[in-house]
Specification:
- It is built from 6 helices and 9 strands.
- It has a single domain, classed as Vaccinia Virus protein VP39 (Rossmann fold).
- The strands form 2 sheets. A 7-stranded mixed beta sheet has the order 3-2-1-4-5-9-8, sandwiched between helices. The chain has a two-stranded antiparallel sheet with strand order 6-7.
- The protein is of the alpha/beta class.
Length: 215
């Protein structure tokens, strides 16, 4: 099991990370990279309560599947989303299984990065298998420059953010590691997004890799 149960107990059950709107990078990347939507199949890993799934529904994707390890997140997503095109699955990423060469688009908005690195490599093997030839994989992954990387204990970070002594399982990557992780894919775009804290004397600067890749 790679899913950290603290996401269920300390995040979604506490009504944290209940995002209402699709993430802007997912929106812009989808529009920039895909011309027609109505014949496309999309999978989101770490769909949460379904904010990005609603976006894909509104674009009229042919088939939409969302996977999350949290029972509470999936329950909320089912309540908030009503569409025959959308299928919601509660499961660990390491245990999912779909047909080979099936999806046109697979999306990961900061979910896979919350797994141990060994498991992340295995998840990437699955993603490569599930994607069609020339299929796209959009992913956001924590950079090693993120503040969480400097305060982690035993691969756990963000304990203050979720009010826990344990924190969340999190992996951080430098550029070389990202390129190794995506070695099977063709990287179309690799960007480092850094945001400095606006609070004086607060050094909690965030940093993400934004990756668009193709099989």
């Amino acid at each position: 099991m790679s899913f950290d149960k603290n996401w269920e107990k300390l995040v979604y059950k506490q009504s944290l990370q209940i995002n209402r709107y699709p993430f802007d990078w997912i929106v812009s990347s989808t529009f920039n990279q895909i011309k027609r939507f109505n014949k496309k199949k999309v999978l989101e890993l770490g769909c949460g309560t379904g904010n990005n799934l609603r976006f894909f529904r509104d674009l009229n994707f042919k088939e939409i599947i969302g996977v999350d390890g949290s029972k509470t997140a999936i329950k909320l997503a089912k309540k908030n989303i009503k569409s025959k095109k959308i299928k919601l699955i509660q499961n660990d990423f390491s245990k999912i299984n779909f047909k080979s060469n099936y999806f046109d688009l697979i999306v990961d908005r900061g979910s896979i990065t919350h797994n141990p690195k060994k498991e992340i490599n295995q998840i990437f093997d699955k993603i490569y298998k599930f994607l069609k030839k020339d299929g796209l994989f959009l992913s956001t992954i924590f950079s090693s420059r993120h503040y969480g990387n400097f305060i982690k204990i035993k691969n756990k970070s963000f304990k203050d953010e979720i009010n826990s002594k344990e924190g969340l399982t999190t992996s951080f990557f430098n550029q070389r590691e990202i390129k190794n992780l995506f070695s099977k894919f063709k990287i179309i775009s690799l960007q480092l997004e850094e945001k400095k804290s606006f609070i004086p004397n607060n050094k909690k600067n965030s940093a993400w890799w934004l990756i668009i890749s193709k099989k």
